[in-house]
Design brief:
CATH architecture of the largest domain in chain B: 3-Layer(bba) Sandwich
Oligomer: heterodimer
Largest sheet of chain A: 5 strands, mixed
Number of domains of chain B: 2
CATH superfamily of the largest domain in chain A: Alpha-helical ferredoxin
Strand content of chain B: 15-25%
Structural class of chain B: alpha+beta
Distance between the termini of chain A: 70 Å
Shape of chain B: globular
Shape of chain A: elongated
Strand content of chain A: 15-25%
Bound molecules: flavin-adenine dinucleotide, iron/sulfur cluster, FE2/S2 (inorganic) cluster
Number of strands of chain A: 7
Number of helices of chain B: 16
Number of helices of chain A: 10
Order of helices and strands of chain A: EEHEEEEEHHHHHHHHH
Radius of gyration of chain B: 23 Å
Strand order of the largest sheet of chain A: 2-1-5-3-4
CATH architecture of the largest domain in chain A: Orthogonal Bundle
Chain lengths: 250, 604
C-alpha cells in the first residue's frame, strides 16, 4: 500500500493563518504524525509541531484531524478516508503559537492553584503507608492522564464560552478527583471546586470523556462524584450539621 | 541579531525528567533560587515513557532482598565497570526515594497486605521493581512535577540550552533560546546541573524521542568536562518491528517479567540455547521452572528471557541473521500463551500490561492476548555520559554537575531494567544537594559578553546561508551510518569508516541552511541539534574502537570474548587543547573490601 495523499495543514501564527495543501506518499501502518514529519522533511522544514514519545504516552501531539480531536501519533492513516484531503488543525481552545502548536500554559497555571497533596501520618516506621489495591485503583484511573488537554479542548465551557477564568476544566477535575480519592490525602478541595474552579458550570455533556485517549471516564468517575461531594458539603443541611458534630467529637 | 534576556540564579537545572525535577526540588528545598529549563513542556520528558518500574530493594514481595543484593546485581549487570560508590549509594537509598514519592502523591500497585508491589525484571535476583501497571514513568514524572510546581522553582519550558559559559575553570552560566519566538536567554548561575538524558537519536532504530540528541554530553564536553564509557549503548532486545513507522518503539521488559517468552520462526525457545556462565546458577533450565518464577514461586530460578539486555538482544540478532526470523525481521514475543495458565486469562494480561495492550492494538492492530508480538532490538539507553564524582555528582568542571541518563557510572557496561528510574531519584537528589552546597559556598562568576554574542551568532548562522544541505537529511544519514557501523555488532574497519563519515557530515552540517523565521521553527532546531549529535556519535565510535573485547552492551565481531586485559579500565573522552577529541584509559578504582565481600558472597 503506497499512495499519494493530500494533507491540508494550518500554517501561520496567531494573527494570520491559512490551510496549505501538501502532498506526500503514505505507506502501510503510518500514523498522522508520520505524515506530518515526512512533509516537514520534504517540503515544509519550518512546520511547527509538538511530539515526543510517538506512542501515546506523553500527550504532546494533540490536534484536530478532520475536525476530530486526536493524538496525531495514535491516529492511523488506515482509519481515515485518504481519497479526500486530510485536514490537520491545531486545538482551537488555546491561543495559537504557530501552525499546529498552541499555547497551553494556562493549564499549568490552573493546576498550580489546586491544593497539593497533604498526606496523613505514615503507618509504618520507614515512612510508608498501607493501602489496599482496591482503594488505589480509583485514583489510579485518573493518574493515567497524559495531559494532552484534548478534554479541555472540546469542553464547551472553555471552547465556546471562554470561561477560562472561572472554570478549571475536565483535566483539572480529574486531577482534583485523584487527590481527593487518594487514601492517604487529608486536604479538602471541595470549597475551591465549588468556587474558583467552577465545577458547577459543567453540565455533564460528556464530550470530554469521549475524546480522552486514555479512556478515563472523566464525567462519570471523576466529575459526578466530585459534584456530589460538593452538594453534600454545601447544600445538604443535615449532612452539614452531622459533620459539625462529628468533627467536634474527633 | 538583537539582544537577549538575562536571568540570575543560584542553581540552574537543565532538563525536567526525573533527574532534573528531583534535583530542582532538592535545590529549592535547600533555599536556593532555582531554575528548571527544558526543551519540551513540563511533564513530557523521556521519563514519562518508562514502563516497567523503578528498582529498589524494599523487600516487600521477597523479604530476602536487601541493598547488598541490589548492589551486587547492579555490579554484575555492569560487568564490574560501574562506579561502585554510585552503585552503593543507589542500592542503599533507592527504597527511601521510592517511599518519599508516595508522600508526594504517587500510588504504586499494592501487595495483598497493602504495601508497594514489586515485579521481576532482567538481572534482578528478587522481584524489585515498584510499578504502576506498565506506566511507572508517568507516575513518577507526574508526582515529581506536581510536587515541584508548589515549590519556588522558576520553570522555563520549551527553552533549549546551547552552550555553557565559563569563568576561568568554573561554570558560570548557559545560553539558550526559547522555541516560541526564537528569542535568546542567558542564565547566570553559581552551579549548573545537567539532567538532559541520553542520545538515542544518533541511531536509526530507537525508542528515543527527538529530544535525545546528546545536548548535555556535548555541552559538557565542549566546556572541558570528561565523558566516560561512551562505547556502552544499550540496545533493548524488544522494540516493535512492524509497521515500519513504529519500528523501534519499546515493548517493555515487563512482558517477559509477567511470563512472556521468546520464540523463533520454528517455534523454539532459543534463549535456552546459550546461558552465560556468570548467570548459569540463577537461570532455569526448563520451561516449567521459568514460568513458575514469573508467577512468584520463590524456589524457582528465572527463565533465560530475563537474562541481561545485551545478551538477549544479541541472541535475537543471531536468530534473525541465521534465517529464523518472524515475517517482519524480528522474533516472536508471546504473552498470550499464559492465558490458559493464570486465573483471569486475557483479563489478567490486560491488567498487568495495559499500555502494551493498547499500543499494539492501536498501532499494529495486534491483540497481544491472542497472538504473539513481533519484536527486535532498538537503541534504548546510554550507559556512558558525563563523568562525575560518585559522592557529589560534580564533573571535573567546578560547579557543573550531572545526574540521570546524561551521567555515566552507575550502570557500567550494561544497565539493568528499572535501575534508571531509581538512578534519577537517588542521583537527582544528590546532585541537587551538592549543587546547592556549592552555590552556597561561592559567589557568582562572570559571563563573557563576547562568548555570548558568538554563541548567538553561531545559532543564527543557518538563516544566512543559501544552501542545499537540509538538516533533516543529514540527521537521517548520520542515524543510518551509526546504526549500521557502530550498532549492536561492531568491527574495526566499520568503526573507522564511521569516524570518517562523521567527520564528513560535520563539515556538511556547518553548511546547513534553514528556511522561514525564528518562530517555532523545527527545521532550525534540528540544525542546531546536529552539532551535539555529531559530538556524541564521534565519542561513541572512538570509544568503541578502543575497547578491543566484547563486554556488556559493547559487542565486537573481531573480539567476541571478554578480555582480562581490558577488564580494568574505563574509557574517557575529552576535548584536547587543539580542539580534537582525545581518548584515554583510566584504571578502575579498587573496590572497598566490604563491597568486594558482598560481591563474592552473592556469587555463591
Ligand atoms: C520507552 C522507554 C521505556 C523505559 N522504561 C524504563 C523502565 O521501565 N525503568 C527504568 O528504570 N528506565 C526505563 N527507561 C529509561 C528511563 O526512562 C530514562 O533513562 C530516564 O527517564 C531518563 O531520565 P532523565 O531524567 O535522565 O532524562 P529525561 O527524562 O529524558 O529528561 C531530559 C530532559 O532534558 C531536557 N533537555 C534535553 N536537552 C536539553 C537542552 N539542550 N536544553 C534544555 N533542556 C534539555 C528535556 O527537555 C527533558 O526535560 C525507559 C526509557 C524509554 C525510552
Ligand atoms: S462533561 Fe462537563 S467538563 Fe466534560 S465536556 Fe461536558 S461540560 Fe465540559
Ligand atoms: S483527562 Fe484524558 S483527555 Fe484530558 S488531558 Fe488527561 S488524558 Fe487528555
Ligand atoms: S507524541 Fe507522545 S502522545 Fe503523541
Amino acid at each position: 500500500m503506497s499512495k499519494t495523499v493530500t494533507f491540508r495543514i494550518t500554517r501561520g501564527t496567531g494573527e494570520k493563518t491559512e490551510l496549505v495543501d501538501y502532498q506526500t506518499e503514505v505507506g502501510e501502518g503510518m500514523v498522522v504524525l508520520d505524515a506530518v514529519h515526512q512533509i516537514q522533511a520534504e517540503s515544509a522544514p519550518d512546520l511547527a509541531v509538538r511530539w515526543n514519545c510517538k506512542a501515546g504516552k506523553c500527550g504532546s501531539c494533540s490536534a484536530e484531524v478532520n475536525g476530530m480531536p486526536r493524538l496525531m501519533c495514535m491516529t492511523r492513516l488506515g482509519e481515515i478516508n485518504l481519497d479526500e484531503p486530510v485536514t490537520i488543525e491545531p486545538m482551537r481552545t488555546f491561543p495559537l503559537i504557530k501552525d499546529l502548536v498552541t499555547d497551553v500554559s494556562w493549564n499549568y497555571e490552573v493546576k498550580k492553584r489546586i491544593k497539593k497533596m497533604k498526606p496523613r501520618k505514615p503507618d509504618n516506621e520507614d515512612g510508608s503507608w498501607l493501602m489496599d489495591q482496591e482503594d488505589v485503583e480509583r485514583p489510579q484511573e485518573f493518574r493515567k492522564c497524559i495531559e494532552c488537554f484534548l478534554c479541555q479542548n472540546v469542553c464547551h465551557v472553555l471552547r465556546d464560552h471562554k470561561l477560562h477564568a472561572e472554570f478549571a476544566g475536565p483535566r483539572h477535575f480529574v486531577y482534583a478527583a485523584q487527590l481527593e480519592m487518594n487514601p492517604i490525602d487529608t486536604a479538602d478541595r471541595l470549597e475551591d471546586l465549588k468556587g474558583p474552579d467552577g465545577i458547577g458550570y459543567c453540565n455533564i455533556t460528556k464530550c470530554c470523556t469521549k475524546v480522552c485517549p486514555e479512556h478515563i471516564t472523566i464525567t462519570d468517575n471523576a466529575i459526578i462524584p466530585l459534584k456530589e461531594r460538593v452538594v453534600d458539603k454545601f447544600y445538604d443541611p443535615i449532612g452539614k450539621l452531622f459533620r459539625v458534630f462529628s468533627s467536634r467529637d474527633s | 541579531m538583537g539582544d537577549w534576556d538575562t536571568f540570575d540564579y543560584d542553581v540552574i537545572v537543565i532538563g525536567a525528567g526525573g533527574a532534573g525535577l528531583r534535583a530542582a526540588i532538592e535545590s529549592a528545598e535547600r533555599g536556593c533560587k532555582t531554575a528548571l529549563v527544558c526543551k519540551s513542556l513540563l511533564g513530557k520528558a523521556h521519563t514519562v515513557m518508562a514502563e516497567g518500574g523503578c528498582a529498589a530493594a524494599i523487600g516487600n514481595v521477597d523479604e530476602r532482598d536487601n541493598w547488598q543484593t541490589h548492589f551486587a546485581d547492579t555490579m554484575r549487570g555492569g560487568q564490574y565497570l560501574n562506579n561502585w560508590r554510585m552503585a552503593e549509594h543507589h542500592a542503599k537509598e533507592a527504597p527511601d526515594r521510592v517511599r518519599e514519592l508516595e508522600s508526594w502523591g504517587a500510588l504504586f500497585d499494592r501487595t495483598k497486605d497493602g504495601r508497594i508491589m514489586q515485579r521481576n525484571f532482567g538481572g534482578h535476583k528478587y522481584p524489585r521493581l515498584a510499578h504502576v501497571g506498565d506506566r511507572t514513568g508517568l507516575e513518577m514524572i507526574r508526582t515529581l512535577q506536581d510536587h515541584a510546581i508548589h515549590q519556588t522553582i522558576e520553570v522555563h519550558m520549551e527553552v533549549t540550552c546551547l552552550k555553557l559559559l565559563k569563568d576561568g575553570e568554573r561554570v558560570s552560566g548557559v545560553v539558550a533560546y526559547e522555541r516560541e519566538r526564537g528569542r535568546f536567554r542567558v542564565f547566570k548561575g553559581k552551579a549548573i546541573v545537567l539532567a538532559t538524558g541520553g542520545f538515542g537519536r544518533a541511531f536509526r532504530i530507537t525508542s528515543n524521542s527527538w529530544e535525545y540528541t546528546g545536548d548535555g554530553q556535548s555541552m559538557a564536553y565542549h566546556a572541558g568536562a570528561e565523558l566516560k564509557d561512551m562505547e556502552f549503548v544499550q540496545f533493548h532486545p524488544t522494540g516493535m518491528v512492524w509497521p515500519p513507522s513504529v519500528r523501534g518503539i519499546l515493548v517493555t521488559e515487563g512482558v517477559r517479567g509477567e511470563g512472556g517468552v521468546l520464540r523463533n520462526s520454528e517455534g523454539k525457545r532459543f534463549m535456552f540455547d546459550d546461558i552465560p556462565p556468570l548467570y548459569k546458577h540463577q537461570t532455569a533450565d526448563n520451561e516449567e521452572e521459568g514460568f513458575r518464577y514469573t508467577q512468584g514461586d520463590k524456589e524457582a530460578r528465572r527463565p533465560p528471557e530475563l537474562l541481561t539486555r545485551d545478551h538477549v538482544a544479541r541472541k535475537i540478532m543471531k536468530e534473525v541473521r541465521e534465517g529464523r526470523a518472524s515475517p517482519h525481521g524480528g522474533v516472536f514475543l508471546d504473552i498470550a500463551w499464559i492465558k490458559d495458565r493464570v486465573p483471569g486469562g486475557a483479563e489478567h494480561i490486560k491488567k498487568k500490561l495495559p499500555a502494551m495492550h493498547h499500543q499494539f492494538k492501536e498501532l499494529a492492530e495486534v491483540d497481544i492476548t491472542e497472538v504473539p508480538m513481533e519484536v527486535g532490538p532498538t537503541t534504548h539507553y546510554a550507559m556512558g555520559g558525563v563523568s562525575v564524582d560518585g559522592d557529589t555528582q560534580m564533573t571535573n568542571v567546578p560547579g557543573l554537575f550531572a545526574a540521570g541518563e546524561v551521567a555515566a557510572g552507575l550502570h557500567g557496561a550494561n544497565r539493568l531494567g528499572g535501575n534508571s528510574l531509581s538512578d534519577l531519584l537517588v542521583f537527582g537528589r544528590l546532585a541537587g544537594e551538592h549543587a546547592a552546597k556549592f552555590a552556597g559556598e561561592t559567589s557568582s562568576g562572570s559571563v563573557d559578553e563576547a562568548d555570548i554574542k558568538q554563541a548567538f551568532a553561531d545559532a543564527l548562522a543557518p538563516f544566512e546561508r543559501e544552501s542545499e544541505e537540509n538538516a533533516y537529511m543529514i540527521q537521517k544519514e548520520l542515524q543510518g551510518k551509526m546504526q549500521d557501523l557502530v550498532g549492536i555488532v561492531r568491527k574495526e574497519d566499520e568503526m573507522k569508516e564511521a569516524i570518517a563519515v562523521i567527520d564528513q557530515l560535520q563539515g556538511r552540517s556547518a553548511k546547513v541552511g534553514v528556511d522561514g523565521n525564528r518562530d517555532y521553527n523545527n527545521g532550525w532546531h534540528t540544525a542546531l541539534d546536529l552539532l551535539n549529535l555529531m559530538t556524541v556519535s564521534e565519542a561513541v565510535a572512538r570509544s568503541a574502537l578502543d575497547r578491543k573485547e566484547s563486554r556488556g552492551a559493547h559487542f565486537r565481531d573481531d573480539f567476541p570474548q571478554k578480555e582480562e586485559a581490558e577488564a580494568n579500565h574505563n574509557t574517557y573522552i575529552k576535548k584536547g587543547p587543539d580542539g580534537e577529541m582525545q581518548l584515554s584509559r583510566k584504571e578502575k578504582e579498587p573496590l572497598r573490601d566490604e563491597l568486594e565481600k558482598i560481591i563474592a558472597e552473592e556469587q555463591k
